[in-house]
Amino acid sequence: MEAAVGSGSPGWSGRDVLDVGCGTGFHLPRFAATARTVTGVEPHPSLVALARRRTRRLGNVAVHQGLAQELPLPDASVDVVHARWAYFFGPGCEPGLAELDRVVRRGGTALVIDNDPTRSTFGRWFRRGFPEVDPDAVERFWSTRGWSREAVDMGWRFTSYADLAAVVRIELPTAAAEAVLAEHPRDLLEVDYAVNLWWKRF
Questions:
Q1: Which of 127, 134, 139, 200 has its CA 20 to 30 A from that of 119?
Q2: Domains in the chain: how many in total?
Q3: Which range marks the domain in which residue 30 is found?
């Protein structure tokens, strides 16, 4: 993702990066390799501990426990925001987006990755598990707030059916997960997965 997003959008080299909902800190070392500073914010204490352990030797990384709607950062303190499955489904995320308005410097960029339920195998599974999510309402939510969308095709690849089943059971409600697994060929260990990348320059 260091490559440009949208026409002329810069990467994160030499810039101050915020990873909202950083989880175990998986992406933090990659950002830290070229960024000036990297801040991870994660609400769950156990994941904060793992992220701190992962980055303990990286002097330009700090990990804080906190919420998207109450970011523990000063005003105008970051240039690039990465949020992967931290703002779900658009509507309801208004307090978190207001915080981005506060912490992102003028000229900065925020990138939000979320599920695209309108296409791909996982998109079909997602609609089955979460029929209440209205893709048109999500589209309106982001676009009316000045965000742009890029469609991204990705996928899952597993070494065993047991691993695939475990992930499906994490991602979907129980009834939907079991129905999906009952229909999915046990020897098919790859699943195509579409996401939306929503981005905005400040």
A1: 200
A2: 1
A3: 1-115
